[in-house]
Specification:
Blueprint (H helix, E strand, L loop, with lengths): L11 H5 L12 H6 L6 H12 L16 H7 L12 H9 L6 H5 L6 H16 L3 H10 L3 H18 E3 L10 E4 L11 E2 L6 H6 L9 E6 L1 H6 L2 H13 L2 E4 L9 H5 L3 H20 L5 E3 L2 H8 L10 H11 L2 E3 H7 L14 E5 L3 H4 L6 H8 L4 E3 L15 H4 L1 H18 L3 E4 L2 H14 L4 E4 H5 L29 H6 L17
Parallel strand pairs: 4-5, 4-6, 6-7, 8-9, 8-10, 10-11
Antiparallel strand pairs: 1-2, 2-3
Helix pairs in contact: 3-7, 5-7, 14-16, 17-19, 21-22
């Protein structure tokens, strides 16, 4: 890194604004577990600054020939020919152990874009020192090419019965959780979502839309919902169709770019953001009123964080800003735009539910009230707030692969808060959080299960398979219900039927 070039260059003035006040220390999950200065925003920014502009070392001078270093310092005074330099080995772990949970930014009195600065410093680090091979394959290979992601999930779906134990009995394709039967490389015996043989885009293609005049929204599913938690997208489709809203899901979406951005692959992230930006602009021009997300990280990236990739390109930043005004999390849309009122039977029996705030939803998109309001409106649901509901769970995408011990330690605090509520279910709005929480709940032997809030809300006559676990009897027919039964049969016998496209855009309208 240097002050003349690199991704960090536009943020040098922000580095100088750090007050070293330590407010970030009170909220940083990694600092709470390690109590080490380099694991908090203040320390990380200081290390980055030392890379950009090393401080002089006045008491260190170069010894003369045959003279010891100590004697040289004593005999020649304080003329500094050296400057202190932070080695790559000293910077790597503090820099890449940040969760990007945004907690430090919410506490920073100077308003420093800490997460963006750390991401930029990672980009410069990767440019100089490269990226580990496995991470490069995942981020710049599989996630960067949607067909590879879908093919990989389909391939995994065939082998998972042999290698994994299904922990969600009776679950359909692309739903439920599983655990390796033996310790596997990288993941050991971690609980993971079951891969989908049929991706979400294909399942959605064969669902009926609302009857008669309707509103239109677009849906950005992201990677995990596309190939694993596919029932979440089905649940959202059912919820919207029942309320007269057609959900358009273009086939051309790629990863939102956040994994590439936060791990330093900025060139890859830029390509992904620009690709999705064009699709979003076309959608809005075609008349959709909102672009909805059901993944907190995707929504936060599309609405805010992607702009840092184009800090010197005002035209692109202007396009992103215009689109950002129309991006909304699905829970916020259900409350703010549709004033969601559940049908007569969304959940069977009585159930205690607690809610975990995903970092990028509560701090990235400022969505806090709406998910709780949705849960309070569900009959049979008793909502109990957990302590520190907005504290990071330690998930952060693939963080558990790079920092398993730290990830588990951070999650342990969250599991304790869940246990104190006595909840049957932990609802959240981020698939990465579900994956992290479910693994912890199984490992700890707790009774609670993690679930996406949309799965609880689906009050259609025939909800997706994953959500049926939370019903004690068949749903009553609700006026205006759009029937979505026999989805598997529809997909199997599909002939491409659906709403006719009225434009040349790569999506149905």
């Amino acid at each position: 890194m240097n002050s003349a070039a690199g991704a960090i260059h536009p943020f040098l003035a922000d580095l100088d604004r750090c007050l070293r006040c330590g407010f970030c220390m009170a909220v940083c999950p990694t600092y709470r577990e390690t109590a080490r200065e380099e694991y908090v925003a203040r320390g990380r920014l200081n290390l980055i600054q030392q890379q950009v502009n090393p401080l002089p070392a006045p008491f260190i001078t170069k010894p003369a020939a045959g003279e010891s270093s100590a004697a040289g310092q004593h005999n020649r005074g304080c003329v500094p020919p050296y400057r202190l330099q932070v080695d790559a080995s000293d910077l790597r772990e503090p820099l890449f152990s940040c969760l990007a949970c945004l907690a430090c930014e919410s506490a920073c009195p100077a308003g420093i874009p800490i997460t963006t600065i750390i991401s930029a410093a990672r980009a410069d680090f990767v440019r100089r020192h490269g990226m580990p091979a496995i991470k490069r394959v995942a981020i710049q290979g599989v996630l960067a090419h949607s067909p590879l992601l879908v093919f990989g999930a389909r391939l995994a779906s065939f082998g998972q019965r042999l290698l994994f134990q299904n922990l969600s009995r009776g679950s359909a394709d692309g739903t439920g959780h599983q655990r390796p039967r033996w310790r596997l490389p990288l993941i050991a015996r971690r609980v993971l979502p079951r891969a989908a043989r049929v991706p979400l885009a294909v399942r959605l293609r064969h669902l009926p839309g609302p009857e008669g005049p309707h509103r239109r929204v677009a849906f950005f599913p992201g990677c995990l919902l596309s190939v694993a938690y596919t029932d979440v997208g089905i649940a959202l489709h059912n919820l919207l169709a029942k309320r007269g809203v057609a959900m358009i899901t273009p086939s051309g979406w790629v990863c939102c770019g956040l994994p590439a951005q936060v791990h330093g692959a900025w060139a890859t992230a830029r390509r992904q953001v620009l690709h999705n930006l064009q699709i979003m602009e076309d959608l809005l021009e075609a008349g959709v009123e909102r672009i909805l997300t059901a993944c907190a990280s995707c929504g936060s990236q599309l609405a805010h964080h992607a702009a840092a990739l184009f800090v010197n390109e005002p035209a692109v930043r202007g396009r992103l800003a215009r689109v950002a005004e129309r991006i909304q999390d699905a829970t916020a849309y259900l409350i703010d735009a549709l004033d969601f009122q559940p049908g007569p039977f969304p959940v069977g029996g009585s159930m205690t539910v607690t809610y975990h705030d995903p970092c990028h939803l509560v701090r990235g998109l400022a969505v806090h009230r709406q998910p709780r309001e949705l849960l309070r409106r569900l009959p049979g649901i008793h909502l109990v707030e957990m302590k520190e509901a907005d504290r990071c769970c330690g998930g952060a995408g693939i963080y558990f692969l790079e920092h398993p011990d730290l990830s588990s330690a951070i999650r342990r605090r969250k599991l304790q808060a869940i246990a104190e509520t006595g909840a049957d279910l932990v609802a959240t709005a981020c698939p990465a959080c579900i994956m992290q929480l479910e693994d912890g709940l199984v490992e700890a032997g707790m009774k609670a299960e993690a679930v996406h809030i949309l799965q609880l809300l689906d009050d259609s006559e025939h909800p997706p398979a994953e959500q049926r676990r939370y019903r004690s009897r068949p749903a009553a027919t609700f006026p205006g219900t759009v029937r979505s039964a026999s989805l598997d049969e529809k997909v199997a016998a599909a002939t491409g039927a659906g709403h006719a496209s009225s434009t040349n855009l790569p999506f149905r309208v």
